[in-house]
Amino acid sequence: MRRWPLWSWCVLGMWFLTPLPVMAEETEVVPAASAQENDTESVSDASREGRSGRSEVRGRSGPWRERREDPDRPEGRAAEGRPFGGGRGPGFGGEPREESFDFLTAEEREELLAFAQEHFPEVHKRLSTASPSERRRFFHQVGWRMLRLLRLQRHDPELADKLIAEQKIEMALMELRRDYLDFPSEAARNTVKAKIRQLMETRFDLRQARLELEIRELERRVVAARERLAKQEESKSQILDLEIDRFIDEVEGRSTWDLPPDSDSPLPGGPPPGGPGPLDLPGRPGRSSD
User: Which of 20, 102, 187, 256 pairs with 161 at a CA distance of 20 to 30 A?
Assistant: First the structure.
């Protein structure tokens, strides 16, 4: 079987951790629900500490909030102010600049190399003998996605194992594609086609199992959301009283409705969505505009 050069593995960035199109909506629902839950909890915590809930939520920036980074937006910027992507000289096709790969720390690069050695030994072997520019190109193309998979393995190993298995199948399919084109005889190509079918069947089963995991997680979130809905319905009168008080205080310019640090929120699960504090409406006296 012919060996592919290292740069060809960068094409895997198109597939790495990319769900099936039919699953795109389902996979987006889970993070969105999670973000809403976490933001509500942050508002509740902020109100207990006497901080502005809106400011607390505004400061959060998704799963990479500890470094204020978005791994899927190459035009974004890292915490140190360095660009994620670009990294090219004037025009297109230039070599990536060294600093354009600094969004991965030395520790993260070592983690990725160890992860690749464990799960993708062929990739690790090629990285070990690659030139610096090839290594930088690899980390630029798939570094963040591999890092996400590594972190996923820490808190959801079952899902991570399925994604790793899927990725190994994708790599094997890349090799078989090359073999199919290289073999001139119909008999040899039929043998390759049989291997391709076997791999695709395994991949199909893995994707079905992954979808089952996602459905299970969605069902858990639906149960939690219904419980919260019921609690808020039970406290409807209390919630309305508090919102009216807040409205009047804001009209009279007396308060931003931050609770004292030693008080507990009387609302089930924290203050209502939107958080404590005034709504920022443009054109209203005494209110700030975003």
Answer: 102
The C-alpha R_g of the chain, in whole angstroms, comes to 25
Measured in degrees and rounded to the nearest 5, phi and psi for residue 122 equal -65, -40
Neighbours of 273 (CB within 10 A): 10
Q: What are the residues whose beta carbons fall under 8 Å from the beta carbon of 202, sequence distance 6 or more?
A: 165, 169
CB distance 257 to 52 below 8 Å: no
Q: Return the exposure string of 173-190: e unless at least 16 CB atoms fall within 10 Å of the residue's CB, then b.
A: bbbbebbbeeeeeeeeee
**Smallest Cα–Cα separation from 84: which of 72, 93, 95, 94?**
72
Please list the residues that pair with 205 across neighbouring strands: none
Say if residues 113 and 127 touch (Cβ distance below 8 Å). Answer: yes
**Is the pTM here over 0.70, yes or no?**
no
Q: What six digits make up the tokens of 179?
A: 């073999």
Annotated domain spans of the chain? 10-234
Condensed to tens digits (0 to 9), the pLDDT of residues 222-235 reads 999 999 999 999 99
